[in-house]
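Changelog note: in this version the structure field was regenerated for every chain. One regenerated record is shown below for reference.
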Amino acid sequence: WLFPERTAFDDYNYSFNFVTLERITSWKEWIESMTEHYITFNGRVFTNGFAAFFLSWELESVFKILNSLFYLLFIGLGCKMMNEREKCQWFHLAEMFLLVWFFTPVPGETMLWTSGALNYLWPTVFILSAFILFRRIMKQSFHWGWTPLLATYFFFAGAQHECFSLPIWGASIIYYLWKRPTVTTPAIIMWMAFSVGTFFVTFAPGTLHRGEGAILSGDSILSFMLYRLYAFAMLFLELKIKATILLVFALLGLRIRHKKIFYRFCQKYTFLLLVILCGIGFISAITYLDTRGVMGIELASILLLYVLIKETWNPEWWERNRIIRI
């Protein structure tokens, strides 16, 4: 609550009309500004539309209250997603809180800064809730009357941020081709809606224009490849993905000491592991060197670290797997 209300240029920029460069004072001007934003700047018209709304009408106090609730939802939905068969206890919430506290990339920019929170924290909540809904649609009976509303929400979740949506979309394609799971018709509809949202934000004219310099960087094929290798290496050398690095070492330790459990873990959480790999590949391919861009990668790693810690400190887990804890 004490964090400054407007801390960067974007927090002023979004309160002005991108067409007339004057202060937004009406809904008509807000729509006009976001349309121009989609065409010339980037495709995140929902996240930045929220920013324009809160900042144009000077509703920073309302934003702070909602942002606090979204942070709590982030913790709760993360626990809910990874505790599919059991109720979340207070120590589960405490563990998730500590992991988020220590491993969220640049929290001042992704959770406190107005424009940053709306581009990173809020999309995280929308996408986590979409994951949970998708899982329920896959496993439970579905009322077709909810289709238009749910499809709209999945489109909305997919259209939040390309650094979240595109790795998830890519991971879903690989997962299906690899595992060949049985997918219900309602689930296919929701996946298609999410896909449309993903393409809506990723291939927006503004997004392509903004990323053209990074995507086409390099005077030759060699420099093109070297720049992407550099972007990939910087993720690790600059410790931008601390949770992912810790997860790699934890899984290596599990692979060395308990091979069967390692394979069982990887089999159960294949999708999240694919999201991490696709996220690293996407960030490296577009040479996105800003630390905020790894939020989706770190979120998936935080969720997997949460499971590893929760399970390995559970006496029933050791007994179930017949392992003597040292």
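Spot check on this record: The CA atoms of residues 51 and 115 lie 6 Å apart. The two ends are 44 Å apart (CA to CA).
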